[in-house]
Amino acid sequence: MIELRNITKKFYQKTKAITALSDVTLTVPEGKIFGVIGASGAGKSTLIRCVNLLEKPTSGEVIVDGQNLINLSSKELAKARRHIGMIFQHFNLLSSRTVFENVAFSLELDHTPKQEIQKRVSDLLSLVGLDEKHHDYPVNLSGGQKQRVAIARTLASNPKVLLCDEATSALDPATTKSILALLKDINKRLNITILLITHEMDVVKDICDEVAVISEGQLIEQGAVSEIFSHP
Ligand code: ADP
Ligand code: ADP
Predict the structure, then answer these.
(1) What is the ipTM of this complex?
(2) Which distant-in-sequence residues (6+ apart) come within 8 Å of 220 by Cβ?
(3) Is 179 within 8 Å of 167 (Cβ atoms)?
(4) Residue 232 confidence (pLDDT)
(5) Helices 114-127 & 143-155, crossing angle to 10 degrees?
(6) Ligand 1 centroid from CA 172, angstroms
(7) Residue nearest to atom 27 of ligand 1 (CA)
């Protein structure tokens, strides 16, 4: 479902180039939850941002749902990105809009009929457990509730793939558990393939089917979670 082939990403600064990713190849099979774990500065964030081309790789191929995203026109890329959802550590909600309006936003941009928006947003808020919060503003929500809104928002455009950029790193352990359970539920019920990056071993052990370990821009190990973490 997601294939990164020989991805290298260099950042050029005045006098030097930083190699953030070095010849990274990985495949995330359809329907799986795939985790990439590594220390701060290892290249996780750069890697996940290459999947939807928020960062353009210096070289290599990015294939999502059978389509090579490299060299698409900006219009084609915008279309492909609609099927690639993303959630973030700090949620990135619109603070001047209610929960309902945050989730409705992309549907409104698409000129979806009003009644359809009403039903779809209500269903999504129900799915993420926020039936009672339609009219609240983000500032009045807990971290876990904000992440639930962000998840509902990204599901509004029917993604096939969900990218999770340290999605639980700002949350306490109990809330982390509940958000991971929600992600697992979404993965199973909606058959959405999930790629997540994290620096927390417990996140990987909790929900991932497969894992890759990244260090200094290179994938140093990759396999089933049970195999990778059974090493002494
Ligand atoms: P992680 O997410 O694992 O903490 P990052 O992908 O953020 O790692 O960073 C990997 C490396 O690339 C680091 O050395 C970081 O300083 C560097 N880097 C990331 N983004 C940029 C950028 N926009 N400009 C220059 N260097 C960057
Ligand atoms: P950081 O990790 O440095 O805190 P992010 O990578 O989370 O920042 O976000 C960078 C910016 O890109 C954000 O302002 C966000 O709104 C925007 N952005 C995030 N996701 C997407 C996406 N899927 N498509 C387009 N733009 C996005």
Answers:
(1) 0.72
(2) 213, 214
(3) yes
(4) 57
(5) 130
(6) 25
(7) 11
